[in-house]
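hey so i finally got around to running both of the ones u sent me last week. sorry it took forever, my laptop kept dying halfway thru and i had to restart like 3 times lol. anyway pasting them below in the order u listed, first the sequence line then the structure token line for each. didnt double check formatting much so if smth looks off just lmk and ill redo it

first one:
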Amino acid sequence: KNLPEAKAGKFKAKRFEINTPGDKTKTYINRRFYEEVSSKYKNDKQYNLRLELAREAHLLFPKAHFVRTEESQHHKDALYFDVYEYADKDRGLVIEFKRKVNKDGGFLHFMRIK
């Protein structure tokens, strides 16, 4: 509900549109990213930190660097996944982002603390 409104074709959508690190394309962060991050690892001791980092994803992801491309195994709509990492020196941790690429573009899909 707090996501900014952006134009998506002829329609408006609630999402962030950010630059993809090392690429000229945009990456979109929508509600599904936050739902995916919040639904996993609820019993993890770093769960609150994970939620805090998810709220900052639109600021952190553009600072990340590309690591590898992975084939999609469980997402039929995905062409592939790009994996990025960001070293957060202030917190002393590495954040891994997965960007799902499909026919509609690239969407931030998941975030993990390494």
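and the second one:
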Amino acid sequence: MLDQLQQRILIVGITGGSGSGKTTLSRLIQKAVGPDKCAMLSQDSYYLDQSHMFDRDGGVVNFDHPRSLEFSLMATQLRMLKQGKTVKVPTYDFKTHSRMEKCVELTPHPLILVDGILILSQPEIVKELDFSIYVDTPELVRFERRLYRDVRERGRTPEGVREQFYNQVKPMHDIFVEPSREIANKVISGQTAFEPAILDLFGTYCKN
């Protein structure tokens, strides 16, 4: 499907609620296309430093509101990538809630996947996307996946994850994420195998 968009660098946004499966989809696409032709850019890299405000696990810092991210920098770097320029992507430490000094260089690739829950809620990001996919997954499934990930990978407590999900993640999902489903170019289920959708959308990239 995307072979109709004839351009040197194609930027595709992949969104959906936290725990929907969007990052898994992104990784599967990159594997199918090949890392030499496909790069991933995560919204999570653009979190502002929250270490000075963080009080406790599941506390007052709302990581699911757009103001917690530097979308202006993200939009600038997407434009630079499309112009064929290498960018220095920030690195965020989720255990200390701080932006680290080191950056990661990202070079232009034929296909760039932009992964994040809020990307379609931000006009400046939507403007830089050539195509967008929304991964649609029920709330309970998303919560269970997030609970497993945050406790295992980010050093969170189950109680903190649960409090944060229902006090912040769900309300922000309802306000910012779910409405963005309507502007996505493609909506796919987060509970079925992704391979058919990948073949349908990225088959040409996989074959070359």
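quick thing i noticed on the 2nd:
The helical segments are 22-33, 71-82, 123-126, 139-153, 158-180, 195-207.
anyway thats it, ttyl
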